[in-house]
Structures are given as C-alpha cells and as structure tokens.
Amino acid sequence: MQLDDESTSNPCPSNSGTSDGPNYGNPLGTTVAALGASLGIGDGGSYKNNPGFGESVAAWTVAGLLIPGGGEEKAGVEAAEELVAVAPDLENLSNHILNSMTKRGWSTDEIRDAFENGESYPATDLTNGGTAATRYVNPTTGKSVVINNTTGGVIHVGGPGFKY
Amino acid sequence: MSADQDSSTDLILELDLPEAIVSKAVVLAGEWAWPSPYAEEVVMRFQTAGKVVSGVELWQNQDGSPKWLATSNYSVDLSDEHEMLVSASARDALEFIARFRDLPGALFNF
Fold this sequence. Notes:
The complex is a heterodimer of chains A (164) and B (110).
Chain A: E1 58-61, E2 64-66, E3 72-74, E4 82-85, H1 95-104, H2 108-117, E5 119-125, E6 131-137, E7 144-148, E8 154-157
Antiparallel strand pairs in A: 1-4, 2-3, 5-6, 6-7, 7-8
Chain B: H1 10-14, H2 19-22, E1 26-28, E2 31-34, H3 36-48, E3 57-62, E4 65-71, H4 82-100, E5 107-109
Antiparallel strand pairs in B: 1-2, 2-5, 3-4, 3-5
Helix pairs in contact in B: 3-4
C-alpha cells in the first residue's frame, strides 16, 4: 500500500464510482466498501453503515465481493473473513485522544453521533499493523473520528480541515 | 509563524522551544508539526522539561491541510512514577517517529 495514495479512505461519500476505487452493488440497497488496499485486492471505496446489521454496526464481507448487477464474485481471498466495525470504546480513551479531543473540540457525544449517524469510510490503522479501521464523519461538525474495527479503540479525532 | 495563530499548542509553547526548532514547524489546521529530525528534538525537549508525550500523529501536508496517516498507540499510565512516565513516553514517541521517518513528507504532530 502506498502511504501517499488515497486508498485508506475515500473522500467521496456518494455511491457512484470514483477514481479512488470501484463501488459494488449491494442487494441490501446500501453501498458496500471496495476492499482496502491492505487486503491486497484493490483500492478502497466508500461504504455506509448498513441498517441490516443493526443500528451501531457496520459490516462488509471480504470474501463475498459483490459486483455490479447483483452477482457475487470471489475476490481472491481464500478464507472468508468478515470485518465488523464495533462501537467506539468511549470508556477507555487514551490520554492522547483525550488531549486531541480538547484541542480539536470533540465531546464523547460527538464521537457517538459520528459513529451512529455519520458517513463512514474504510481506513487503516497503520500503527497496529495495518488492521482495519473506519473513519466516521460527524454529520454536524464535519470532523472525522477513526475507530479500530476490532477493538473499538478511538485512534484519531480530527479537526476542521483535516484530510484523509 | 506566531503563537497566537495556534490554539492547540499550549503544551508545545510551554516547552519554550528555540527559534531553530520553531522555525521548522509547519502549521496546518492551526497545529504545529515537524519533519522527523526536528520532531525528535521536540521529544527530547519534552523529556528535558519533565513533560509526558501523550502521543504522536503522523501527517503529510496535502495542499496546506494535514492529511492524517497514523497515530502512535503506546499507552501512558498516569499512575506510573512521573519520571519513569516521562522517559517511557519519550522513548515510545521516538520509536514511532523512527518507524515513519522515511515516509516522504512525513510530519509529526504532538
């Protein structure tokens, strides 16, 4: 993965395809993520929380890559693996995140609001070996929070003008 | 660069950094960040001042805005003895910087 590319996030929240990566049809009617470059199967794309998985859970399947037209194609990933974004762990915010929240004007309610109601984009937690993460955009402030998909740990809270 | 353009650097300002380091800071979205050699110097200043580096973010400058790439994940246990905490956080911050120092355009924000 090139660190200077846009594969870890997609600034375009729409369902339409972008130059950043393909988008795939979804029988549930929501956008499914193009898979992250960290998985070695192409550039990332946008996806949204899928109500079908519950109010606070976003999920997409790695092995069952959906293709336009509603078909399903093996993505070249041998083992079926499901990546599920878990709710932010607001009880165990690191001191660094707490400091960042203060200087960038975040509250825990705003993190929760971003997770529950914001647009979401695939991201990568480079510090933790490139594990999957998700960036959520607070619908009110437009600021982003990045959450580790496995642990729910809040990795980053951004300020106005940050890019991803 | 003036300090009053930045509302997020109170801790940095407390370090009373020399002009040689301040002048190398890049201000993005109202926050300061440094290329690796100077970021390492800032960490050492934290340690000398007896202050804990709670974490480090890796950025690149994208058209005058900070592009976030990574955040350090070492933990800071405030129950530890302060001197040990200062030393450990500096060590971990330097390790994070070293890990990404070769990334073109890498900037480190505290």
